[in-house]
Amino acid sequence: MASPRLETYCCPNRDAATQLVMNFQPEVFCGVCIGSASISLLLTILQLLPKKGQSPRKMPKASSSSTILLLISICDILGALGMIFRSSVWLGFPGFIANISVVNGTDVWPSTFCVGSAMWIQLLYSAGFWWLFCYAVDSYLVVRRSAGLSTIVLYHMMTWGLAVLLCVEGIALLYYPSLSSCENGMEHAIPHYITTYAPLLLVLVANPILFRRTVSAVASLLKGRQGIYTENERRLGTEIQMRFFKIMLVFVICWSSNIINETLLFYLEMQPDINEMPLKNIRSAALITWIIMGVLNPMQGFLFTLAFYGWTGWRVDLKWRKREIPWESMSSSTAGENAYPSPVNYQSNIHDSKKISTTDSQQTDEAISMLSEGNTSSDERLTRSSPIYQGW
C-alpha cells in the first residue's frame, strides 16, 4: 500500500499513531500486501497482453491518450512490484527491519532500505496520479482538437517533474535535519503529508470537472457531425460517459480508505494519550482502514485496466504480427477516396466542400475513437455511421 506513514516509520522516534498501525499484526499486513499486489500485478499484465482474435489497443499516432493509459498501468505495475519487494523483506528478515527502531544505530542499511522502498512506492503512485490528471486534460483537448504529438512531451515533463519534486521535497522536510530527529514536531510531518496527498486530491477534484466538460463537448461534436443526434451517437456519448465514471469509481474505491485512515490517525496524534478507552473505536477504525488500504491500493492497476479496456479475456497471443488498427480503416478510406474518379460534371466548389466535410468528419470520428478506445462495439458503430464508411 502507499501511505506517507511508510516514510514516517523510518524515523526511530516516530509518532504514536504511526507506531500503532505499523505494529498491528505486521506479518498479516505484509502478507495481505503481497497477496493483493501479486494478484493485481498478474491480472494487469494479463489484461495488457495481446489476445487472440483481437486488434491491439493502439491509438492513432497523433494521439497521446493511449500512451497515457499505458503509462498509468506501468506506474501501477512498478508500484506493486515495490510493495511486493518491501513486504517480502519485512517478512523474511524481521531482525533486519527491527534495527530501524534503534536510535543512533551504526547500521545504516535498514534505514536506507526503509526510506528507499517507501520513496519508490510513493513516487510511482504519485506519478500515476499525475498521469491520470493528464489523461483527463488530454481527453478534453482531444475533443477540442488541441492535442497532438507535442502534448505528450509536456505531460512527461509535468508528471515526472512534479512527482519527483514533491517526493524529494516532502522527504527532505520530513527527515530534516537528520533521520534520527524527523518526528520531533508536526512541522516535519505535515508538509510531507501535503506533498503526498496533493496529486491524489487534485484527481478527486479536477478530473470529474474535466470529464464532465469533455462529455458535454462530445455531445456537441456528435450532433455537429451530421446535423442530427441519432441513437448511435447517443450510445457513443453514454459509453464515453460511463468510461469516465468507471475510472473515477475505481479511483475513489482504491484511495478513499487512505483519506479516512489519515484523518483518523491525525486525530489520534492530537490526543494526549491515544490508548485511552474513549478512543477505542477510533483506534479500531484506523486499524481496519489500514488493512483495507493494503488490499485496495495495489488492486488499482487491475481495476483501472477493467475501466480502460473491459475484460480482455484469457487467450493470450504471444505471436507478433502486424494487425490492422480499427480506426486505420477510416484513414485508409479517406486516402482511397482519391482512387475513385469524380464525375467530370461536378463543379470544383462542390468537390471542395465535400472534401472539407469529409475531413471534418474524419477528425470527429478519430476524436471519438480515442475516447472510446478499447470498446469494439463503439468503434464499429462509429465507423458504420461515419460518412467515410458510407462512401460519401
From TrEMBL:
Keywords of the record: Cell membrane, G-protein coupled receptor, Glycoprotein, Lysosome, Membrane, Receptor, Transducer, Transmembrane, Transmembrane helix
SUPFAM superfamilies: Family A G protein-coupled receptor-like (SSF81321)
Assembly, per entry: Interacts with heterotrimeric G(i) proteins. Interacts with ARRB1 and ARRB2. Interacts with MLANA.
UniProt key word Iron: no
BP-aspect Gene Ontology terms: melanosome organization; regulation of calcium-mediated signaling
GO molecular function: dopamine binding; L-DOPA binding; L-DOPA receptor activity; L-tyrosine binding
Family note: Belongs to the G-protein coupled receptor OA family.
GO CC terms of this entry: apical plasma membrane; lysosomal membrane; melanosome membrane
Organism: Malurus elegans
Amino acid composition bias (Polar residues), ranges on this chain: 358-377
Location(s) in or outside the cell: Apical cell membrane; Lysosome membrane; Melanosome membrane
Name of the protein: G-protein coupled receptor 143
PANTHER family: G-PROTEIN COUPLED RECEPTOR 143
Renumbered residue ranges of the record's region Disordered: 355-392
Residues spanning the membrane: 28-46, 67-85, 119-141, 153-178, 190-211, 244-267, 287-311
Membrane topology: Multi-pass membrane protein
Function: Receptor for tyrosine, L-DOPA and dopamine. After binding to L-DOPA, stimulates Ca(2+) influx into the cytoplasm, increases secretion of the neurotrophic factor SERPINF1 and relocalizes beta arrestin at the plasma membrane; this ligand-dependent signaling occurs through a G(q)-mediated pathway in melanocytic cells. Its activity is mediated by G proteins which activate the phosphoinositide signaling pathway. Also plays a role as an intracellular G protein-coupled receptor involved in melanosome biogenesis, organization and transport.
